[in-house]
Amino acid sequence: MAGNSNIPIEVRGATKKYGKVQALAGIDLTIPAGGITAILGPNGAGKTTLINILLGLVAPSHGKAMVFGGKPGRMAARKRIGAMLQDTELPENLTVKEHLALFSAYYPDPRPVEESLALGGLEDLAGRKYNNLSGGQKRRVQFAAAVAGRPELVFLDEPTTGLDLDARQTLWQVVQGLAEEGVTIILTTHYLEEADRLADRIVVIDRGTLVADGATAEIRARVGGKKVRCLTELATENVEAYPEVRSALRTGRYLDILTSDEVSTLRSLLAQDETISDVSVSGTGLEDAFRALTGKTETGDLS
Amino acid sequence: MSLLTALSRECAAETLKLLRAPEFLIPTLAFPVLFYSIFGVMMGRGGPQAAYLLATFGVFAVMGPAMFGFGVGVAMEKDRGWLDLKRVAPMPVWVYLVSKLFGALIFASFTLAILYAVGGWLGGVELDRAVWGQLVLLHLMVTLPFALLGLTIGFLVKGNGAVAITNLIFLGLALLGGLWMPTSMFPSWFQTAGSYTPSYHAGQSALALIGMGDGAGGHLSVLGLYTAVFAILALIAWGMQKR
């Protein structure tokens, strides 16, 4: 396969086995330049393995992964990449500014440090040592370090974990701004709302395989129909047996039912359960699509 | 930016990191100076002991920054995911290692300067200027094998374990190698065990320089061999980092 150095990511039949555990069971994925792609999946789905392969930290067992038309992890690719990894801490006793100046020095055409500070919203913290920062502030330093080198491709692995709502929304704006400049962004996240807000494309991975890949609106619409939520004594299997019902899942005390015909579902529910209460009907969103695709309620930790 | 800029900033960062870590500073700087002042100067009372122990404590003084800077430093930074980020960043890994070596050398030089001053002024150690020069070069060179040993430990062991293991090996090598007191004061089995350690050969090389040993050549060759072995071990340990 001839590599095209303009295509950020091409993966063909990539698998990865750790001992007996099949982390990736054959992934095909092409991500062209530009745009924000969210990679979603439940715990242990293989998202981080995929990202680590693309970063060159892990070699695939079989298949091929290419970053900018060549082997991931080679110097030419690394010069065009920035990454914010999960579970990463920078050395404690350097200041925010020292960290960013150091990271800038690695790249051929970095941003001025002041600009990186501004992107992370860190102007007031420039002189503070890393270990005197809060968890959210540390994440922002890691984000600023990821973009300090003016990379064309940015990996954001759970970028907003530990950030409060304000900081999260600010970061979303910055990420959107980068995408508008033409930066290609790969995002994994816990928060489906985040993927919904930011991503133009969503890739869902489950048990090491790609189960859905499409524009965000398309994935959202894939479930279609309506969501009925109620408090009922009926068994989940009972409700799932209705012909128009796609899925029924317990969420706390509630039963969430995805249905293509909410009227007939409501009719059956009311007929079968006289004690039914707290009934609501809503459109479906990305979260419902995710549940329908993976049978899981949330993306969980990456692993 | 150029590789040179990256290298100089990385060296500055490594030195700052060490300077701001009192848990590193105090033992690496204070222990050799303190022990030498007691055993070499106060108990030596101007005898040959001051010169003998200056040669061996000089080895002890450079072993600390080399083994702890690399052993504990790399293990911690590996655990914290920092090493992964370095492997993703567009900077060859040797820049990181050379910078760590630079940091270790800066510290070693600093400790050696104090040690030599104590030996020269308080201990009455008198050497030709050329011998002082050779001694400092040899002592600084000894950083390399111990940095590579530390690096191997750093790659293989987790952070907290690395502190314990580095301490154990560091103190063990210092004692067995006769850096605190000549091995001739110990039983013969101890001397035999000691004669296999790199610290012993480093100490003997330094002693040969000041005319108190049995010639430097053989000991330097063994030290070179150790350096090669530790380099290979560090390379193997580095290879194991790629999952």
Descriptive overview:
By secondary structure, chain A is an alpha/beta fold. Chain A folds into two domains: 9-220, Rossmann fold; 225-283, Alpha-Beta Plaits (2-Layer Sandwich). Chain A is built from eleven helices and 13 strands. Chain A has helices spanning 47-55, 75-78, 96-106, 113-119, 135-147, 165-180, 192-198, 216-223, 236-240, 262-272, 286-294; strands at 9-18, 21-31, 36-40, 62-67, 81-84, 153-157, 184-188, 201-206, 209-215, 226-231, 245-251, 254-259, 277-283. In chain A, the strands form three sheets. Chain A has a six-stranded mixed β-sheet, with helices on both faces. A four-stranded antiparallel β-sheet of chain A has the order 11-12-10-13. A three-stranded antiparallel β-sheet of chain A has the order 2-1-4, with helices on one face. The longest helix of chain A has 16 residues, at 165-180. The two termini of chain A are 30 Å apart. The model of chain A is unreliable at 299-303 (pLDDT under 50). Chain B is an all-alpha fold. Helices cover 80% and strands 0% of the residues of chain B. The chains are: A alpha/beta (303), B mainly alpha (243). The A-B interface holds A 18, 52, 55-59, 73, 75, 78-79, 81, 83, 85-91, 93-94, 98, 101-108, 110, 129, 145, 149 and B 1, 5-6, 9-10, 13, 16-17, 20-21, 77, 80-82, 84-85, 87-92, 242-243.
